Amino acid sequence: MKHNLPELPYGLAELEPFISQKTLEFHYGKHHQAYANNLNKLIKDTPFENSSLEDIVKQSEGAIFNNGAQVFNHSFYFLALKPNGGGQPKGKLMDAIKQFFTSFESFKDEFSKSGATLFGSGWAWLVVDNNGKLSIIQKSNAGNPLRDGYKPILTMDVWEHAYYLDTQNARPKYIENYWNLVNWEVVQKRFEE
Q1: Beta strands at 134-140 and 122-128: parallel, antiparallel or unpaired
Q2: Cβ(83)–Cβ(14) under 8 Å?
Q3: Does some domain include residue 9?
Q4: Which of 50, 59, 122, 135 has its CA 20 to 30 A from that of 105?
Q5: CATH number at residue 188
């Protein structure tokens, strides 16, 4: 099975001014593509050759895991962004956020802090456990919550290549910009599946 990048539901310039076209050209077009290319080479003639991306993330180790998880993580990230996004979720997701974080603002603060305080490179995740409880977790490098039995519903990439061309080393500015792009309809759908 060949793993390809998902087609973005927006043009490369449509997330401006929050994420520039140049950043997407590198982040999606080069970094993400390189992970997919590497994964496809690495799984050839292995037990993972015909595995789904989710199974690769859950079961592989080493280079296959690192590249497979990065394909999954980046696709998950890019597909939950949209031009003129942001705002707040609605319905059951908002109810759950209020239940587990008191308010949307306190959730947003906690999620932002998770991204800002992650040492080095990695991901901040909003996840659901088997009992429907929402949590925020940090994962370094290619880490993915599927390996811990969680269902991810939202992620924020805090590798420097996600923001360096736009905000240089100012990760907090990138995080502030991120909230203007979240596609809550996608996150809601993931939550309800």
Answers
A1: antiparallel
A2: yes
A3: no
A4: 122
A5: 3.55.40.20
Cα dist. 42→39, 54, 122 in Å?
5, 16, 22
User: What domain range is 26 assigned to?
Assistant: 21-79
Across residues 133-140, what is the average pLDDT?
A: 98
Grouping H, G, I as helix, E, B as strand and the rest as coil, residue 135 is strand
Task: Pick out the residues of the known binding site for Mn(2+).
Answer: 27, 74, 157, 161
Taking residues 75-100, report their average pLDDT: 97
Closest by CA position to 21, among listed 10, 11, 29, 13: 13
Averaged pLDDT for residues 48-60: 97
Please provide the size of the chain in residues: 193
Query: Percent of the chain, pLDDT > 70?
Result: 100
Binding-site residues, in ranges, read: 27, 74, 157, 161
Tokens of 69: 């998880």
Q: What is the DSSP string of 67-109?
A: HHHHHHHHHHHHTTB-TT--S---HHHHHHHHHHHSSHHHHHH
